[in-house]
Amino acid sequence: MNDNDSIQILSEIRDEMKEINAQIKWLTAKAGEEMAEDKEREQAMLKIAELEHKKSKKDLLTFVALIAVPLVWLAIAKLDLL
Q1: DSSP letters along the chain, please?
Q2: Cα→Cα distances 53→42, 60, 66, Å
Q3: In tens digits, what is the pLDDT along the chain, a chain of 82 residues?
Q4: Distance separating alpha carbons of residues 67 and 60, to the nearest angstrom
Q5: Is residue 50 within 8 Å of 56, Cβ to Cβ?
């Protein structure tokens, strides 16, 4: 094996390493983008869950009020406080 063959092989190795480095950079960038998108989706889902929780809490309070008001009215009427 002479110097030209060695130089040729080393050049091929260098080119392959450059290609691998470019692929790693692309994969790293792609992973960063995916992580950012996942975080945004997670925040959106959390916001939706919070809104649903507030709505269900409001619905429960409305239901309790609809039951409690007539019962209190009935109790007041039975006790002749009106």
Answers
A1: --HHHHHHHHHHHHHHHHHHHHHHHHHHHHHHHHHHHHHHHHHHHHHHHHHHHHHHHHHHHHHHHHHHHHHHHHHHHHTT--
A2: 16, 10, 20
A3: 578 889 999 999 999 999 999 999 999 999 999 999 999 999 999 999 999 999 999 999 999 999 998 898 888 888 877 6
A4: 11
A5: no
Token representation of residue 57: 């809490």
The amino acid occupying position 39 is K
Q: What is the maximum alpha-carbon separation in the chain?
A: 115
What tokens appear for 24 in the block? 């790693």
Please give the radius of gyration of the chain, using alpha carbons only, rounded to the nearest integer: 35
Distance CA(51)–CA(38), nearest Å, equals 20
